[in-house]
Amino acid sequence: MKNLLLTTILLVSPTFAFAQQQGENCFPTGQVMESLRDRHGESRQITMMVSSGKLLSVMGNSKTGTWTLMEVDVSGTTCLLAEGPNFVNYNEPPVPQGEDG
After folding, report:
1. C-beta of residue 101 within 8 angstroms of C-beta of residue 1
2. I want to staple 45 with a disulfide (CB 3.0 to 4.6 A). Which of 26, 54, 60, 66 is the partner?
């Protein structure tokens, strides 16, 4: 699971700079969260801090399968990076420290 998450982050990382430069997919965080919740039934599934100090979040709806990947800045701006179908929440327990899953 760690490897899949790391691979996803590495593949999407170039998109961060592109989305920030373009600015066309960036909106106030509250507006984005409300829209994803109300229009798509998505809720926050995972959030992690990346090396830039920004947050990378995945919103998802396990019933409809929709998901959204976004970068959240402390300024209150969220940039939409990717979206798609087939979201699955595995709800796996954490791997005990010292083991690699």
Report:
1. yes
2. 60
The Cα 96–Cα 101 span in angstroms is 9
The answer to whether 2 and 101 have CB atoms below 8 angstroms apart is: yes
Give the alpha-carbon dihedral of 62, 29, 10, 51, to 10 degrees: -130
CA 99/CA 59 separation, integer angstroms: 27
Tokens of 76: 């209150």
- Contact between 6 and 47 under an 8 Å Cβ cutoff? The reply is no
pLDDT single digits (tens) 46-65: 999 998 899 999 999 999 99
